[in-house]
Hints:
It is built from 61 helices and two strands. It is mainly α. The longest helix is centred in the C-terminal third of the chain and has 35 residues, at 1062-1096. The chain is flat and about 155 Å long.
Amino acid sequence: xxxxxxxxxxxxxxxxxxxxxxxxxxxxxxxxxxxxxxxxxxxxxxxxxxxxxxxxxxxxxxxxxxxxxxxxxxxxxxxxxxxxxxxxxxxxxxxxxxxxxxxxxxxxxxxxxxxxxxxxxxxxxxxxxxxxxxxxxxxxxxxxxxxxxxxxxxxxxxxxxxxxxxxxxxxxxxxxxxxxxxxxxxxxxxxxxxxxxxxxxxxxxxxxxxxxxxxxxxxxxxxxxxxxxxxxxxxxxxxxxxxxxxxxxxxxxxxxxxxxxxxxxxxxxxxxxxxxxxxxxxxxxxxxxxxxxxxxxxxxxxxxxxxxxxxxxxxxxxxxxxxxxxxxxxxxxxxxxxxxxxxxxxxxxxxxxxxxxxxxxxxxxxxxxxxxxxxxxxxxxxxxxxxxxxxxxxxxxxxxxxxxxxxxxxxxxxxxxxxxxxxxxxxxxxxxxxxxxxxxxxxxxxxxxxxxxxxxxxxxxxxxxxxxxxxxxxxxxxxxxxxxxxxxxxxxxxxxxxxxxxxxxxxxxxxxxxxxxxxxxxxxxxxxxxxxxxxxxxxxxxxxxxxxxxxxxxxxxxxxxxxxxxxxxxxxxxxxxxxxxxxxxxxxxxxxxxxxxxxxxxxxxxxxxxxxxxxxxxxxxxxxxxxxxxxxxxxxxxxxxxxxxxxxxxxxxxxxxxxxxxxxxxxxxxxxxxxxxxxxxxxxxxxxxxxxxxxxxxxxxxxxxxxxxxxxxxxxxxxxxxxxxxxxxxxxxxxxxxxxxxxxxxxxxxxxxxxxxxxxxxxxxxxxxxxxxxxxxxxxxxxxxxxxxxxxxxxxxxxxxxxxxxxxxxxxxxxxxxxxxxxxxxxxxxxxxxxxxxxxxxxxxxxxxxxxxxxxxxxxxxxxxxxxxxxxxxxxxxxxxxxxxxxxxxxxxxxxxxxxxxxxxxxxxxxxxxxxxxxxxxxxxxxxxxxxxxxxxxxxxxxxxxxxxxxxxxxxxxxxxxxxxxxxxxxxxxxxxxxxxxxxxxxxxxxxxxxxxxxxxxxxxxxxxxxxxxxxxxxxxxxxxxxxxxxxxxxxxxxxxxxxxxxxxxxxxxxxxxxxxxxxxxxxxxxxxxxxxxxxxxxxxxxxxxxxxxxxxxxxxxxxxxxxxxxxxxxxxxxxxxxxxxxxxxxxxxxxxxxxxxxxxxxxxxxxxxxxxxxxxxxxxxxxxxxxxxxxxxxxxxxxxxxxxxxxxxxxxxxxxxxxxxxxxxxxxxxxxxxxxxxxxxxxxxxxxxxxxxxxxxxxxxxxxxxxxxxxxxxxxxxxxxxxxxxxxxxxxxxxxxxxxxxxxxxxxxxxxxxxxxxxxxxxxxxxxxxxxxxxxxxxxxxxxxxxxxxxxxxxxxxxxx
Length: 1346
C-alpha cells in the first residue's frame, strides 16, 4: 500500500523537446506539461534551439507545438502561466535577434496572437514595455514582425484598464525613433487599431509618418501610400492624409534622385492609387479639391497631377478642373493687381509673381512627366488646356502677364498642348479634333487662340501634322461658313503646312475658288486674303507660277467691292516685298484697270466720279483709287533706278530698295505708271480743289449729289497723300492742309462717316495711312526750315519797316497742320498693324525717328516766334495765335502717343534718349538734379528720369507761365505715365515737385488744376499719397466752407485750390478714394484667405505665413485709417449735389469693407479667438470719432435740403438719394453689429468711442410730392411732417433698449417703399398716427439711450 501511494505522488517523467513535438502532432496533452516545475525545462529547450546552426525551423516547430498543446486546455492555470512565460521569452529572444526573421517567425507570432486572451493583462504590459524600449532596434520590415501582436493586446488592455492606458502606449510609440521598416509596419498595422486614435493623436501619427517617408525606399512608397489612403477612406484624418501625400510628393520627394525615371514611375503608381481610392470613396476627392481651394501653397506639380487624375472620375470632372482653372486665373489676377497696387509691400508683390511662376512651372512639369505611368491624365490635360484657351475671351484675363517674367495663359496652354502633341501619339487626334470642334462651334473672338495653337503646331511639328491633313481638309470645308477673320487666320496658320503638302495646297485653292463666288462680302474678303497667303507661301517655297495660275481669281477681285480691292492691293504690295522680281508682272496686271480711271489726253485726267456708284439710294465708293495709286507708287519706289532718259527731278525719290539686281518687270508698265504719277502731280497743282469737287457734284446724276461729293473728296484726299508721300511736294501739302483747315476736303470725311449707311464700310472704317514715317519726318524738317526762314524774313522786314516780298511764300503753319494731323493718325495706327505684317516695315519703319523733329516743332511753337508776316487786323492776329496754340496742342498729343508706344515696346527706348539729346530747354533749378540722374546705373530708369528732368519739367514750367492749360494737361499725363514706371525714390521726387507746383502756382483752369493735383497725389508713394490728399482736403474745407465756417477765395497753403478749381479737385480726390476702396475689396479677400489658413492650421510654413498675413493685415488697416482721415474732411464740406451723392456711395462701400474686416476678426466655431490687433483697435477708434458721427450730421443736412426742395429739378436727385442713404445707414449698422459681436468674444469694448446717442433718423422723401406741390401751388399741403415728428416721439418709448432692432432693412429702398410713401401722402388723414410713421420709414433711437 505504501508503494502504491508513493507511485501515485511520483512526478511525471521529463519529456524531451522531440517528444513534445510528437505529442503536439498526436494532439495529446501530457501530465508533464501541467506541472509548473516543468516550465523552466520547457523554456530551456527553446533557448537551446536558438543555438543550432539553422534555428529558424527548430524554433518554429517547438514553439508551435507548445502553443498547440497549450490551446488544448488554455484555462488551466499552469498552462496559462506557461503561455505567459513562453510569450515573454520568445519576445525577448526575438528582440535580441536570436530568432531569425522569416516566414516561420511570422507564422509563430500570428499563432501567439490567437491565444493572447489567455495571458494576464499585467503580463502583456510587461511585454509592451519590452517592445517599446527596443523599438529603435527594429530596423528592417522583418524586424517588426513582433508588432503584429499589438492589435490583439490593445483590445485586451482596453477592456481591463480602459482607453487611457492604450493611449499612453501609443503616445510612447509615436514619440520614439522610427526606422523606415518600423514606419512601414506602423502604417500597415494602424488600420487594426485606428479606433484608438483621436484627431490630435492621429495628426501626430501622420506627421511622424510623412516626416519619416523621406527615408523609405522608393519601391515601398506606393504600397505605403495605398495603406494611408485605405486609412483615410475609413475615416482616419482624411484631410491630413491627403494633405500629407500631395505635399510630400510635391516638394520633398525624390531628393537627389528627383526627376529620375524611377521617381516619376513611383509618382505615376501613387496617382493610380489615388484615383482608385477616390473612386471607392468620393469624399477623398472633395478633400483634394478643398485643399487646393483653401490654400494656394498646396499647388505643386503633384497636386496638379492629382487633380487631373481625379478629374477622370465622372463626378469630379467639372469641379476638379474648375478649381484648378480658378486657382491659376486667381494667381494671374493677384499678380496683376499687386503689380499695379502702390501700397502693397515689394515682398508681397514678389510673392505674387513667384506664385504665378510656381503655378506655370508646376503645370508644365505635370505635363512633361505625363508619360511616366500616368497616361490616364492625358485626356484631362487636353481638356484643361482648351478650357484655359477659352478663358482668354475675358478682356481682364488677356493682359495679365509680363512677357519678361511669366508666360501667360495663352502661351502656357499652347506649350502644354504642344508637349502632349509631341510626346503622346494618342493625344494628337484628340487635339486636332478638339481644335476643329471649337473653331466651328465657338464665337469668333474665342477662335483666335485656337487658331494660334494650330499655327504653333504646324510650325513646330510640320511632319507630324501631315498625318492629319485629312482632318484639316474637313475643317477647310467650312471655310465659307466661318467668320471672315477666323477664315483668314486659319489659312494663314496652315501656310507652313501648305508648303509641304501639295494635296493640301490644291484643296485650299479649290475651297478659295468656291468662296470667291459666294454672295457674302465677308467670305469673298476672306478668300482674297487666302489667295495672297497661298501665293506668298509659294514664293517662300521658291516655287513659281501660282500668281499666274490664280490671276483669273485676282481679275475677279477687280470687280468686287472696294474693301476687297484694298485687300488685293495690299496683297500685291506684300508680294513685291517678298519677291521684288514680281514687280513687273504686278504692274502689268494693274495697268489696264488703272487706265479706266486715268486719261492722259483729257483736261481732267483723273475720273474720280467713276470711282463711286449708287447703291440702294446711297452713294458708296466702288474703286479705292487712292489705295491703287499707293500700291503702284510703293512698287515703283521699291524698283531699282537705272534709266538715264528720265531726270532725277521727275523721278519719285527712292526710299529704299530691296534688290540691286537687273531691272525688274515690264518697262512699259513701269514707265506708264511713272509718267501717270508725274501728270497727276502736275494736275493736282494746277486745279482748284473746290471747283473740281463742285464740278463733280454738278455733273452728278444721282439723287444724293452731296454724298457723292463727299466720297470723291475722301478719295481725292487719299490721292493727294499718296502724291505727297511720293514726291514730298510742299505746294500740295499747303493746298491739302488749307482744304482741311477750311473744311473743303478733309473736314467733310467725319461728317460723311456719320451720315452714310453702315454698309459703306469704306467710310466708317479707319483707312491705312499712305504717308510713311520717312515722309512725315522729311515734312517736319521742311516745316522747320520754312518756319525759321519766314521768321527771319519777318524780323528783317520789321527792322527795315518794310513788307515782305510780294511773292506768296509757302506758309509753314499750313504744312504743320498737314504734317501733325497725319502724324497723329500715323502714330495711333502703329499698334494696330501686326508685327509680322510686311507693310509695317514699309509704312512705319523706325517710328522713333519722328521724335526729334516733333520735339523741335514743339519748341518752335512754344517759343512764340513770329512764323509769318505781321497781320494788320487784330482778328486775323487772334486767329493766327489760336492756330499756333492748336498746332502746339496737336504736336503734344503726337508726342504723348509716341512716348506711350516707346514705354510699351522695350526696343523703342532709344526714342527718349534722342529726345533728351535734342532738348534745348534750360531750367537752372534742375541742373543739379540732371547731374545726379546722369549717374543712375540702370539705363532704362536713367533715360526716363533724364527725359522728365530735361524735357517735360522745363516744358511744363514754360507752358504754365504762358497759361497754356490744355497743353499742360498733356504734359501732366506724360509725367504721370512715366513717373509710375520709376522706382520709389525718383517717383517721390517728382511727387514733391508736383506738390510744390500746387502750393506755389495759382491755376484757375479746372481741368489743368485737376491734372496737376492728380499728378501730385499719384506720384507720392503710399502712405504719402493719402497724407497729401488729406492736406488738400483740409484746404478744400476752408474754400468750400462748412456749417461752422465761411468760404475762402484761395487756399493759403495750396494756391491751386480756389473757388474756380475746388469742384474739379474734389472730384479728383474722390476718384482716388474710389480706387482705394476698390483695392480694399481685393485685399479683404486675400485677408480672408490668410485668416482661413491660420485658423485651419494648413500644412507648411505656418510661421512664415503668419508673419506675411500680419504684415498684410496691418498695411490694410493703416490704409483704411488714412482713408478715414480724408473722408472725415469731406463729410464736413458743403458739397454740391453730384459730389455729395458720390460721397455717400463711397462711404457706404467703405463701411461695407469695414464690416467685412470686423467679421474676419471673429474666430470660426472651434477655433481660438484672438485679441484684435492694436492697428485694428486704432482704426475702429478713429472711424467712430472722426467719421461716423460727422457722417450722420452730413446725412441729416442732406435730408433737410430734400424737405425744403420744391422744384422738379431736384426730383431725380431725391430718387437717387432715397436709395443710397438707407444703404449707407444699413452698412454702418452692420459694421457696428460685428463690432458688438467682436467685443463680446474678445472681452474688449471696441465701441467705447462710439457716440451711442447719435441720431440715426432718416426719412425717405417721395419725389412725387415735390412735383405735385410744384404743379399745384394753390393746394394746401398736409401737415404731415409735424404729425410724423409727434408720432415718432410717441413711439420712441417703445424702442428703448432695442437699438439693434432699429437697423433699416435694405428693402426700404425698394420701389414698394416709395409707393407706400406716396400712398401715405395722399391718404395721410385716413391712417392712424403709428401706421403713418411706419409707412414713412422713420427710424428713431431712444432719447434715454445715452
